[in-house]
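Design job #97: recover the sequence.
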């Protein structure tokens, strides 16, 4: 049984970086990035490769932005999940330590105190490759100091969703309960993001656990997006009333988010060709392993934006009033996909839906693992350079990764 390693107090390090957006660079053929309108009449084959599907009313100047990033906290050991708490604080999971910490806007990092709940989470978690303590969500109805939190962990035999009570005054965790288990696990493709939707239900992103057949198997929880109640039961209104499956045909989903109209988005890792941003429809089949990227095949839902895997490998996402932001690992940048109208406006033919993807912070902070919208319009981004695949940054011979960044996006002049 392990204990949570203490994380020393981190002072905010003001590092301002002006990041001009980077133009989308195509790679030729089917591996070029692109974006299409999700209107009923649009298809991947109708969209120009590497660009935006033409539509009346499109604003060609949309998306011209700059970004400034400030380091809020650093020396976080393999951070993975992030959830907002009152007071501009965040609850962050550490994948390999199976630990949690509260990060303050001042840069202070406070690990949860040794407690029965913290020990139980650590005992249940068996880090393995990409697996470990992954996603975290906080009940949006809670105001504190007690919060119900949900965790996604990789165990010895499966991935599971846990529920626990967080005492923010005492910085302890208690009453850990497994609410959903039996999610396939492996050294990779574990999914792991969890989030409350605007309907009050919990959505769970899973991976195919290295077995592509899981994604199309309706009886497997792998390669799916699940929708459950806070007690872990299939949520009312699911496509199959007895199943938690909300959508299927996914390879490895690690980002979930909703816009103001309730439209649901998910990011997905491709295998060797194309990564995806999808609009999620209940009961939708997103094609894996038969299709990677846009395929324009009957029965499968095409992505609304896609990238070569070398330019993205998207993990967490955040949806704001103006855009979807995707944290890219291998691509080492923050992708921005402008939102040009609501789902209703797109369906009515009044809007093209999405603008051309643009890259921010390209190469400035290495691998980016997660992004969370802040209360004042800023974005908070977790880097992912200490996960064994990155090159951790150093200062004066000391490793300073991983970091929590505060990113301000503004229209370009």
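Job complete. Output follows.
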């Amino acid at each position: 049984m392990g204990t949570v390693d203490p994380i020393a107090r981190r002072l905010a390090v003001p590092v301002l970086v002006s990041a001009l957006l980077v133009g989308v660079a195509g790679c030729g053929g089917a591996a070029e990035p692109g974006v299409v309108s999700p209107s009923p009449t649009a298809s991947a084959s109708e969209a120009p490769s590497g660009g935006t599907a033409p539509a009346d009313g499109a604003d060609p100047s949309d998306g011209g932005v700059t970004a400034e990033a400030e380091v809020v906290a650093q020396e976080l050991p393999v951070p993975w999940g992030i959830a907002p708490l009152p007071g501009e604080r965040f609850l962050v999971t550490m994948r390999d330590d199976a630990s949690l910490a509260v990060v303050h806007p001042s840069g202070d990092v406070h690990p949860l105190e040794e407690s029965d709940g913290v020990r139980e989470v650590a005992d249940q978690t068996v880090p393995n490759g990409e697996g470990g303590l992954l996603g975290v969500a906080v009940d949006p109805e809670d105001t504190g100091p007690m919060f119900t939190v949900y965790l996604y962990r990789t165990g010895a035999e499966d991935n599971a969703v846990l529920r626990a009570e967080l005492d923010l005054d005492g910085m302890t965790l208690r009453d850990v309960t497994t609410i959903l288990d039996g999610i396939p696990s492996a050294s990779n493709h574990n999914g792991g993001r969890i989030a409350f939707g605007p309907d009050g239900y919990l959505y769970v992103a899973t991976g195919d656990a290295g077995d592509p057949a899981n994604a199309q198997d309706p009886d497997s929880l792998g390669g799916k997006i699940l929708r459950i109640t806070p007690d872990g039961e299939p949520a009312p209104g699911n496509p199959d009333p007895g199943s938690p499956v909300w959508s299927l045909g996914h390879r490895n989903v690690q980002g979930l988010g909703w816009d103001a109209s309730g439209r649901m988005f998910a990011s997905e890792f491709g295998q060797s060709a194309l990564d995806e941003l999808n609009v999620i429809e209940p009961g939708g089949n997103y094609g894996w392993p038969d299709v990677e990227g846009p395929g324009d095949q009957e029965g499968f839902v095409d992505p609304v934006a896609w990238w070569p895997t070398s330019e993205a490998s998207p993990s967490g996402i955040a949806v704001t009033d103006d855009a979807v932001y995707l944290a890219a690992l291998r691509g080492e940048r923050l992708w921005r996909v402008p939102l040009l109208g609501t789902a209703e406006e797109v369906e009515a033919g009044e809007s093209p839906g999405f603008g051309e993807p643009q890259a921010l912070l390209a190469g400035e902070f290495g691998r980016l693992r997660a992004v969370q919208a802040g209360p004042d319009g800023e974005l908070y981004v977790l880097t992912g350079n200490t996960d064994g695949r990155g090159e951790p940054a150093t200062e004066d011979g000391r490793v300073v990764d991983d970091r929590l960044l505060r990113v301000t996006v503004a229209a370009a002049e």
